[in-house]
Each structure stands twice: as C-alpha cells, then as structure tokens.
Amino acid sequence: YAWDANEEYLFKAMVAFAMRRYSSKSTTQISNVLLCNVTDRVSFWFVVTDSSKNVTTVPGSEVEAAIRMNRNRINNAFLLSDKTLQFLKITSTLSPPVEPSTPVWLIVFGVVLCLIVAGIVFLIVSGIQKHKKKKESTERENLEEKVEVTLENGIPCEALDLKAGHINGVFAADDDRFTSL
Prior knowledge:
Layout: H1 5-23, E1 33-36, E2 45-48, H2 60-69, H3 71-77, H4 104-146, E3 149-152, E4 155-158
Antiparallel strand pairs: 1-2, 3-4
C-alpha cells in the first residue's frame, strides 16, 4: 500500500504509544519520534528523543524493549505480521509452537495400525476369493470328466460308453413287427 504522511503519523503514534507503555511515563509525544532516510520501499530508520531533555535520544535498548513488548499492537495497526513488518536488530516475537490436541506419536501409531489392519483384511479376502475360484475350477473339471459332450453338426451328442455298450432304441424293438429278409 502507499506510504504517505498519514502512515508516517500512525507509525510515530504507535512508537510513542509503545514508549509510554514501556516506561510508564506520559512524556513521550509523537513529535519525539523522528523518521530518517524514508525510501519508496518503506525503508527508514527512526530515533526517539527524550522529551524532558529534547536533545538526547532514548537508548536503543529501551526502544527495542518497548517495540518488542508492543510488537503485536504495531503489526495490527498496519495489518501486517512479523514476516512483513521487519525491525532490524529487533528479533521477531514468534508465537509459541502450536501443540496439537493429540500427540504426534499417537497419530503416527494410528495410521500404521490402520495400514496393518487393512493389509490383513486384504490378505484374508483375497485368500477366500482364491479358495472359491479353486473350488469352482475343480468342480468344473469333475463335471467335464463325468460328462463328455461331443458336437456333431452343431448338435450336442453324448459320447458312447464303450465298456457298457450302447443300444439304439429304434432297432431294439420287437423283431415281429418287421418282415424278415
């Protein structure tokens, strides 16, 4: 966003606010915050002067401590974060690491346990399917061995059982009906 005189005023006000909160004195005014070497990329350095002496600057350690203590208020005023609003020589105030509600080892254990259970179920189901297929194929082979069907002219015919013989019912009728030759 554009850095203009209003933004500079807001920054000075936030630094004066931080100094007042830190030192518990109400002597720091907006006019005590001086901005120097402001560039187009919103890069500058600033100095805070002591209002009682009006010439001396406040030690850098006090300014750093005041900004560190009120860093989140300054960030929120500009709608920025520690990654976007950077103060050189002042370490960013990182929030404490987020602790998940469940421990990480418990999540990993649950995932591994689910994979093992899924693998066991897969092995059992595939074993049952193979057993069924094997049983069906043996039953088909047994049926094919018992009944051999031959096709003649596209019509299924039973194979002759050569050991027991085969009697054709047409010619097995009484011979009395027919005249002899």
